[in-house]
Specification:
Elements: H1 2-38, H2 47-52, E1 55-66, E2 71-80, H3 82-85, E3 93-99, E4 111-117, H4 120-128, E5 131-132, E6 139-141, H5 153-157, E7 160-166, E8 169-172, E9 178-182, H6 184-191, H7 197-202, H8 213-222
Parallel strand pairs: 6-7
Antiparallel strand pairs: 1-2, 1-4, 2-3, 3-9, 4-7, 5-9, 7-8
Length: 228
């Protein structure tokens, strides 16, 4: 009986781990779809800003978890340009977005977010620990359109520019007051071992999973070179 119990426990653990890995794989694939779709809309992220970004964070289907409070909960991925922010886009690290009052603006709908991280200070801060937008890192709603003139003084000073897509509408949105942090448990599920987010993204500690192919191909095609 004890042996049977032990065997069942092992099978249960394997099943749980497989479910977790599949869940993170789906998140990475969904992030790729969101990035591709947003970069194909007529009035999207200005090319000049995408080319200047060190990293991109994609958070598919962020939802409000407490009606009337405005709290939010979302999971997604972060990828940065390799080779000290000059090369191809890196393997993704799993990220978590929490808190903030922007939920009241979203009407309770699941919303996709894309964040551009504009400098290495912002990137290192997010990859190292929890960062509160607007306090630990300067954040602003990102401008739309392909015209380089869209970059205002506010966006040029911001470390993070944020965009949202809800009900088919794409717009810049402020995420001040929310927090970003590495999702270490999700990284372990995706890569099969404990790997710090910074090692994944900046040090090439693991190869990109197949689920990231669409995300990385889209970014490499649309913004292959960093514009300093």
């Amino acid at each position: 009986m004890k042996r049977l119990t032990a065997v069942l426990a092992v099978f249960a653990l394997v099943a749980v781990n497989a479910w977790a890995a599949n869940k993170e794989t789906d998140r990475v694939e969904n992030a790729g779809k969101v990035m591709e779709e947003i970069l194909n809309v007529p009035d999207d992220i200005p090319q000049s800003l995408l080319d200047k970004a060190d990293c991109v964070i994609v958070l598919p289907s962020v939802v409000k978890f407490a009606i009337g409070i405005g709290g939010n909960y979302g999971r997604g991925v972060m990828t940065c340009r390799s080779n000290n922010f000059t090369g191809r886009w890196s393997a993704p690290a799993m990220m978590a977005l929490e808190g903030g009052s922007f939920g009241l603006q979203l009407g309770g709908q699941a919303t996709d977010f894309v964040l551009l991280v504009m400098n290495d200070r912002g990137a290192n801060g997010i990859l190292t620990g929890k960062v509160k937008l607007g306090a630990d890192a300067a954040a602003a709603a990102g401008p739309k359109g392909r015209d380089a003139a869209a970059a205002t003084d506010v966006t040029m000073r911001a470390e993070i520019l944020s965009y949202s897509r809800s009900r088919g509408l794409f717009a810049g949105i402020s995420l001040e007051g929310s927090t970003l942090r590495p999702d270490n448990g999700a990284n372990k599920s995706l890569y099969g071992k404990d790997v710090p987010a910074k090692d994944i993204v900046l040090r090439g500690a693991v190869p990109a999973p197949a689920s990231a192919n669409l995300l990385l191909h889209t970014l490499d095609r649309r913004s292959p070179k960093h514009a300093k």
